[in-house]
Amino acid sequence: MLRKSLINLFTGFFFLHPAQVMGEVAGEVALMNKILGNASCGTSGCHGGAGAVGGVGERFKSRDGHARAFATLASARSARMGEVLGLADVTASASCTVCHAPAAGVPELMRGGDLLVADGVGCASCHESTDSWLRTHTRPELSHAEKVASGMRDLRSPLARAEACVACHQVIESRLVEQGRHPRLIFELDGQLASEPRHWREVHGWDGAKAWFVGQAVAWREAAAARASGRDTLAGVDERERALAWLVRRAAGATGLGAGALDVAGGEADGLARAAEAGWKTADGERVLYALAGCAAEFTAEEVSVREQAYRAERLVLALDRLLAAWPERARANGAGPQLANLFAAAQSVPDFEPQKFAGLMAEFARVLSR
């Protein structure tokens, strides 16, 4: 399960390490370890300038929806949701700001002078920007590991990205969906990264298929934790969790990740996420693609409820999309795009889902894919 609660989205992230890279000013760091706002990152000499790392701040502010997350709370639609939910001011309600403006939950003693609630999901939300990091992360004599030790989250890893995103993109308060009509959330790491305007340079060797699998394993872990703790009480919660388990286990079986002894102290899902982080191979994405494409018959199984089949289909079509995207030339050569579009259309509505129809479309997708 998540190691930190949502309400502590910031405060649980920052701590002093035994080997501070700023050892000569360790006492000062202990006194000044505050969470900084976007302005500290966007100065003219850093991400707001014209150098190699410049322009990032402006691209994020002008193009990324995270930067407008708090402004969303000021919309007429959010106000109507607040009325239904009995919230006097959604811009000040922890139920909303915990994800739309995490800075609102930072204790006063930990607030940097430029940390603004209006920044929405700002730089610190993902990168853990503190004053100790600000004073060290540009020093050329420090290794990447030392910079991470000073308070920077290392987002080169799919698991680290999934951990950073899943809290606000997988489970929200059930009443926000049931009463406020907030959209139900479906976390899918690779697809969300692909749709986000880039304000970063991707690391060498980034594997979208691996990111998809790690993200789904983490999503399963969080879905299970939310159900067990009572945080997710929406109708179909059991079926959604079982659908995720089915998808992750089937994918893991195609790679062999689940065959060895897993460290399952955090549960099967967490073990599979960590196994993939360490052991995923380039060819595994293709193996998983063909394994998932060949599951048409499973949608005719009478022992599985139609609702669970609908949730399986919902996750499956997203998986096929991202796995195909990992081999764009292969996807174009196979011409599976129209078949995938048909699958998306068939999985759009959970109440109207038709397993037999979906099974037929899956069989056609598999036939075209194998050409």
Question: What summary fits the major beta sheet?
Answer: none
The number of strands is: 0
Q: SS-based structural class?
A: mainly alpha
* Average pLDDT taken over every residue: 86
Task: Give the tags.
371 residues; globular; mainly alpha; 2 domains; single chain
Topology at a glance:
Layout: H1 26-32, H2 38-41, H3 56-63, H4 69-73, H5 76-85, H6 94-100, H7 123-127, H8 131-134, H9 144-149, H10 158-169, H11 174-178, H12 189-195, H13 208-229, H14 237-255, H15 268-279, H16 284-293, H17 306-325, H18 328-334, H19 337-346, H20 355-369
How would you describe this structure to a colleague?
It is a single chain. The protein is mainly alpha-helical. It folds into two domains: 7-153, no CATH class; 155-371, no CATH class. It is 53% helix and 0% strand. The chain is globular, with a radius of gyration of 22 Å.
Brief sketch in words of this structure:
With 371 residues, the protein is an all-alpha fold. The chain contains 20 helices and no strands. Helices cover 53% and strands 0% of the residues.
